[in-house]
Amino acid sequence: MNNPTIRIGVLGELGVGKSELVHRICHPEVTAPGTTSALAGPTLDVFNFERPRGDRLTGEDIWVEFLVIPSETRHPRSRQMLYSIGLDALFMVCNCAVPKTFLRAAEWLEEARGADNLQNVPIALILGGPVAMDWTLSASVVALVEPLAQVYSVKVLDLSGYMSSYSLNSKQRELLSEFYEDVVRRKPLTG
Hints:
Layout: E1 5-12, H1 18-26, E2 43-49, E3 62-68, H2 78-83, E4 89-95, H3 105-114, E5 123-128, H4 139-152, E6 155-158, H5 170-186
Parallel strand pairs: 1-3, 1-4, 4-5, 5-6
Antiparallel strand pairs: 2-3
């Protein structure tokens, strides 16, 4: 039986750790930090999300495709072309340790919400960075995150520390699983 698929676009500033995050999700085996490198164009990786059996939905595993969307481009409309391929959700990745990574987040969220087929897709604001931190204790990060969460109705996922650890921890994986389930609930699944 073919497992259903959800497709998630991954946005964020150059060097924020988009490829590293996708690598940590799709390849949970222990690998050294920094084993991925920044890539210039769109990249695709796939993860088999093993749903708990007896789930109130279907209990079937789901293929999650991650499309890393380039942030810097000579062609401003290239992201819009990628938005048109049928994304079911978006990750907006920001680095809590580098506040400037939030500067273009509102612009890109506005751009994505303006695309006809992305107006109602779930969006996760991924708070990353090399060090695990409680972002709610940083007034400067709170001042950047709260307006984005309210205006664009994004779910905030604190995954800080994923760039320095060897794998995502259980709490981070749980947050991601909850987001995948939300995407599944919103999408009619076909094999």
